[in-house]
Predict the structure.
Amino acid sequence: MMKARTLDDVETFLEEASPLLLDDEPRHNLILGLASTIRDAPGLYPEPEFWVVHERGEAAAAALRTPPYNLVLARPRRDAALDVLVAAVGGELPGVVGAVPEVDALAQRWSKRYGRSARLDQAMGLHVLESVRPVPVPAGSVRAAAREDRALLLDWWGAFGREALASEEQDHARDARAVDHRLDDEHAGVVLWEDEGAPVSFAAYGGPTPNGIRVGPVYTPPALRGRGYATALVAELSARLLAQGRRFCFLYTDLANPTANAIYERIGYVRVCDSKQLACG
C-alpha cells in the first residue's frame, strides 16, 4: 500500500526523498539542486511544496514545486506510485519537468484523472561531465561577475530566456531574483569571458547536489558568436568546479539546437538521458 505525504519543510523532504533521489544523482540533479537552494536560500522561492510517496517505509516517488513554476519530478521506483502522486498534487499545474519516460507517464495519468491535456514545451538533453577535454582558447580570459555587472547580466539573462526558452514576455522580477542569487550566494555564481576588457559571454552555475552542480544558463550575444567564447568559458568554469571538489557538472541542452549540443560534447559533457518540459492546459 502506498501513501503520499505533502510537506512544506525542505529538510523533511530531503530526509525522506534522498534515498530515492541519490539512486541516480545526475538524473535527479534538478530536484536535488532546487531542494538544496530552497534550504540554503529560503527567501528565493517562497511557499515551496513537496511530495513524497511511501511504500513499505521507503520513498517510491517524489516531486517538488516552487509556485508559480512547474512541478519537478523524480523517477519513481515503479509507475504505480505516480497514480498516488497525481492524486496528491492535484489538477492545478502549469506544467511538469522531468526525465523521460517518467515525465510522460505522469502526464498521461494527470491528464486522465483531471481531464486536461499536457503538451510538449521543450525537449532537452541532460549532460554530465566528470573531466574536461582541452578546447581552443580564444582571445581574452575569464573573471567572476560582480555587482557592477548586474545590469548587463539582467539584459543577457532576459535575452537568453527569449531565445532559448521561447519566452514571449520577460519576467523582470524573476530574472532579477535569479541574477541576485547567483551574485550573492556562496553556492552559485556567474563567470564572464572578457575580450579586450569587454564582457562577451557569460555562464552561470548553481543548484548544488551532494556531489555535483548545474551549469547554466550560458549566453553569448548573436554578434559575438562563432569565436569560441562560450566553449572556452564553459570548459574553464567546469574545470574550476571540478577542482573545487565536485564530482559532476550537469548541463541541460535544447535538443533542437545541434550546435550547442556539439559544443558541450566537445568539452566532455556526455548525454545521459532526455528530459522534457510539458505545459499542462
The first strand starts at residue 2 and ends at 7. Residues 115 and 162 are 31 Å apart (CA to CA). The helical segments are 10-21, 29-40, 80-89, 102-114, 150-164, 172-184, 229-243, 258-267. The two ends are 31 Å apart (CA to CA).
